[in-house]
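User: Study the fold:
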Amino acid sequence: MVLALKKLINTAAVSFCCLLSPFALADAAKNEGFRIAKEVQDRDSGWGNSHATMEMILTNKHGVSSKREMEQKTLEVQNDGDKSLTIFHEPRDVKGTAFLSFSHALKPDQQWLFLPALKRTKRISSANKSGPFLGSEFAFEDLSSFEIEKYDYEYLRDDVVAKAPVYIVKYLPQYKHSGYQYLEIAIDKKEYIMHKIDFYDRKGSHLKTLRFNKYQHFNDRYWRAMEFIVNNHQTGKKTVLNWKNYQFDTGLKEADFNQAALKRAR
């Protein structure tokens, strides 16, 4: 009788553990995903402000390309998202176009686009953040900084990308009006930098892939990819960003990031 009772209790305990294990595994995956994402953010903090120039190459599905020359100023904001100002210099039809972005966590990002031909500033609606940025394969929401509160996280697996051991982490947007159901991001196990982002649209279909190449180390601390390549798997289009002349601590201040600065941009 006693042995039978012990066997019954042990069987019940094993069954209960088996019932809990999927939930325990799910929680572990979420916790590990959050840990990795938090480490990415922590390692890339404290840089203050930066300035860089860029060449953007747009290629359509027929292989025809066009180029744009730009510069970007960025300001790190404590306890909030970064601010950035992107100014187009070439070609002539986009010269003077400027884009101002204030990133936030769960509060909607604030974004404005100055169009010199119309001599007016257009506010980008939070409901339109999934739209393409000036004909590129970047969406407006892609130009926002990665704030930890914007996503839920799930560690998926280990992998190798660009010959580097990486974690694959699922990022699930928690902000309204995202054009993505989720992102899968390959994060370097040693440096906690991103090697690749796979974007999945609202239907869960693979939309595009962004690869970060040619990393350089600045100030013995901060890594920056000097080449971004976005391939849209649904349209066959591609956008390449070649970054140049990265500088940090350039003296940029809050006053350099407002709507008046948009109109002053040249």
In short: The chain has a mean pLDDT of 90. DSSP finds two helices and 13 strands in the chain. The chain has one domain: 43-264. The helical segments are 2-43, 259-264.
